[in-house]
Write a structure and sequence with these properties.
This protein is mainly alpha-helical. It has one domain: Orthogonal Bundle (Arc Repressor Mutant, subunit A), CATH 1.10.10.10. Helix 2 crosses helix 3.
Length: about 100
């Protein structure tokens, strides 16, 4: 198991997203001081999904983006389920703006 102090700052920031909220790749990148594409690669390789909820990251157009290296299929279905458990509703493949959150 990878210790917290060995995780990328983008992964650690995921822990600060409140229940029922999501952030965009762009917002997470801004807060972590990196690029949205880099964030996507970091999340794809997240070794600590147990404590770093990467399912809470979506695209700027409020569509789902990817999850566990996939953009469709069972992993996306899992992302939708995890978001629903968190109180975030996905409708027509999009997430309403009221669920968006920004880092201070």
């Amino acid at each position: 198991m990878v210790p917290l102090n060995n995780l990328h700052p983008a992964l650690l920031l995921l822990r600060k997203i409140p229940k029922g909220k999501v952030v965009t790749y762009k917002e997470l990148a801004r807060a972590a001081g990196t690029s949205p594409r880099a964030v996507g690669q970091i999340l794809k390789r997240n070794p600590r999904t147990d404590i770093c909820p990467c399912y809470k990251v979506i695209r700027s157009d409020r569509t789902l983006g990817g999850y566990a290296g996939e953009t469709k299929g069972t992993n996306i279905e899992k992302k939708i389920m995890l978001l629903a458990q968190d109180g975030v509703i996905v409708k027509g493949g999009r997430i309403d703006a009221r669920y968006l959150w920004s880092f201070p």
